[in-house]
Amino acid sequence: MKAAAMILLGLISAVANTAASAGSGGDSKSMDPVRLKFAAFNQHDAATIEKIYANDATLHSPDYPNLAGNRQIADTYRRLFDAIPDAKDNVETLEHSPDHVYAQFILAGHLKGAQDKPISVRIISVYAVKDGHIVDDSTYYDRKTP
Questions:
Q1: How far is CA 132 from CA 28, 82, 91, 94, in A?
Q2: Domains parsed from the chain with CATH numbers
Q3: CA 127, CA 138: separation in Å to the nearest integer?
Q4: What pTM did the predictor assign?
Q5: Which of 90, 77, 86 is nearest to 112 (CA)?
Q6: Judging by DSSP bridges, how do beta strands 88-96 and 118-130 pair with one another?
Q7: Which pLDDT score is estimated for 145?
Q8: Could you give the CA distance from residue 87 to residue 79 in angstroms, rounded to a whole number?
Q9: For the segment 14-32, what is each residue's pLDDT rounded down to a tens digit?
Q10: Rounded Cα distance, 35 and 117, in Å
């Protein structure tokens, strides 16, 4: 358990340093839950993702237009990790304003049972952040992406 926590903290630090070196300004505290969410995603840690989202958070996406509650959001990630066992988010840009974080990233991996067919989905998400939690996640992608 301690080793996993150390790896997660290292990933958070790496993402923070990348964003800082890219010239991201403003209040870094407002970005912490988003950085942590990406680090947890890449560790397939749905329990941490559940803690990052506020209890009454909402998720809007092409597949889930009005998903409500951090438990339902985490369960969605659990299903995604099961469907794409090697799923990774590769963050390309991370920008923020005082209450929002804007992320462009690529979800890459292979569908379960189809290791010969890689998938790559370009995604943009707009996160509303309040009191150290993600309270709203509006995610956009083309469902037809291979």
A1: 11, 28, 20, 17
A2: 2-141 (3.10.450.50)
A3: 6
A4: 0.77
A5: 86
A6: unpaired
A7: 57
A8: 11
A9: 333 333 333 334 444 445 8
A10: 29
